[in-house]
């Protein structure tokens, strides 16, 4: 502030010098100098105040601008975060959709294969039904108009198969009948032998325990035993004959 104050004074004194030599008006009074310096000081103060106000305004503007920039940067960061989160969700959704599409494609291919196999089976069944319808029609026509020998191959083959099965069943029935007869004879023979053995056992027990019987009774018992042995031999021959029949 001092150089600016001194500069007018220095400039005023040279001006006053020539005026005094040139016959200008007399020197200014102290009151006029004081007014001049006071006005100059007021002007300088106003300029300084304006400068300070401008600097304060600039500082406030800078601080407001910095705050706005900071808030804008925070908003941008939040926006970028939300955009990144949305993009991650979209990528996850795209991955899920891709997996679902792949699964649907595989399922579609499997269904297409199944449909193809079903179509082939349906075609085969249709052909088979057509053949059976033709055979039924031929059989109906043959029954109504009389079947020709050359057109009766299927019926002939079926009848031959039925006759062969009938003969086989007849042979099995005959074999089973013979086996049943042999078993029946064996059962009868077993029953007879068991009865004879029980009788001979009773006779043997009676012979051994009858001490008071006379000697002729013993001879009769021996004769009865001989008869029992003869009967057993006859039954043995019958059993051998029955076994021979069964083997036949």
UniProtKB/TrEMBL annotation:
Record protein name field: Uncharacterized protein LOC111463807 isoform X4
Taxonomic superkingdom: Eukaryota
Gly residues bias locations: 223-241
Bias type Polar residues, positions: 13-22
Source organism: Cucurbita moschata (Winter crookneck squash)
Positions of the UniProt region annotated as Disordered: 1-35, 216-248
Keywords: Coiled coil
Recorded coiled-coil stretches: 159-186
Comp. bias regions, Low complexity: 1-12
Gene that this sequence comes from: LOC111463807
């Amino acid at each position: 502030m001092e150089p600016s104050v001194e500069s007018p004074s220095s400039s005023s004194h040279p001006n006053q010098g020539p005026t005094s030599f040139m016959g200008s008006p007399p020197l200014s009074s102290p009151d006029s100098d004081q007014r001049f310096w006071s006005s100059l000081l007021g002007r300088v103060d106003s300029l300084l105040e304006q400068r300070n106000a401008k600097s304060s305004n600039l500082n406030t503007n800078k601080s407001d601008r910095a705050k706005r920039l900071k808030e804008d940067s925070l908003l941008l960061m939040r926006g970028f975060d939300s955009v990144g989160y949305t993009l991650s969700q979209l990528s996850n959704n795209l991955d899920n959709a891709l997996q679902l599409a792949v699964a649907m494609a595989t399922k579609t291919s499997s269904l297409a294969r199944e449909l193809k196999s079903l179509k082939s089976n349906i075609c085969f069944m249709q052909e088979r039904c057509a053949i059976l319808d033709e055979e039924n029609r031929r059989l109906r026509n043959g029954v109504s108009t009389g079947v020709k020998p050359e057109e009766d191959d299927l019926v002939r083959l079926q009848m031959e198969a039925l006759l062969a099965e009938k003969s086989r069943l007849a042979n099995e029935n005959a074999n089973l009948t013979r086996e049943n007869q042999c078993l029946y004879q064996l059962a009868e023979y077993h029953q007879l032998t068991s009865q004879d053995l029980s009788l001979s056992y009773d006779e043997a027990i009676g012979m051994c325990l009858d001490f008071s019987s006379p000697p002729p009774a013993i001879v009769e018992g021996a004769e009865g035993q001989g008869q029992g042995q003869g009967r057993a031999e006859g039954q043995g021959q019958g059993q051998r004959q029955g076994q021979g029949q069964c083997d036949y």
